[in-house]
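EI: anyone free to look at a 219-residue chain?
SC: sure, send it
EI:
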Amino acid sequence: MAEEPVLTGILGGTFDPVHFGHLRLAQELAERLALAEVRFVPSGVPPHRAPPAVSPVHRLEMVRRAIAGNSRFTLDQREVNKSTPGYAVDTLGELRAELGADAPLCLLMGADAFLGLNSWRRWEALFDLAHIAVALRPGFFRDSWEEAMGEALRRQLARREQAVDGLRRASAGGIVVQEMTPLDISATRIRRQLRRGASPRYLLPDAVLAYIRDNRLYS
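SC: here you go
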């Protein structure tokens, strides 16, 4: 009997700072999709948003501390090591070259990020490189979420959406949508709390909060 293909998940972002919303999304999708690994890929120079509040070195270390102890979570530094913007299509292209043409890859993202997917560089080429798993977060109802999409993105969803077990039948090209545990946590809110001296405890790992305080970040 042939071995079942190993499915690798990719979770990118600024992680400014990393919090339990990121970690829970990664954990739930890892379990539901039976991911062998989730690679956290902090962005160095994000192309689609304002520069992060703290340096790539600090954000990298916060992610390192946040995922310590979870054998399925790993840290990928490739975008932080670049001086140019890290585009998802380029990162996935590098991973595809490293892992081989037949290895299933799955780009993990929230429903809000998916709505803006058609603004990403060469966004339709993403489907040649990976599957996409979308986590429906609090406040995103399926019908209104689809209505908010542009026509091109809606067509891709209709064409490519499949059940979870379809992710191992091909190395790329599918979309799966999963409802997640409602954790309404945002990095923006955490940064605001820190700036006004309020405690964000229980919104992010203690090891991350300790690092923020030790290095006087977001103050």
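EI: Residues 133 and 176 are 5 Å apart (CA to CA).
SC: 👍
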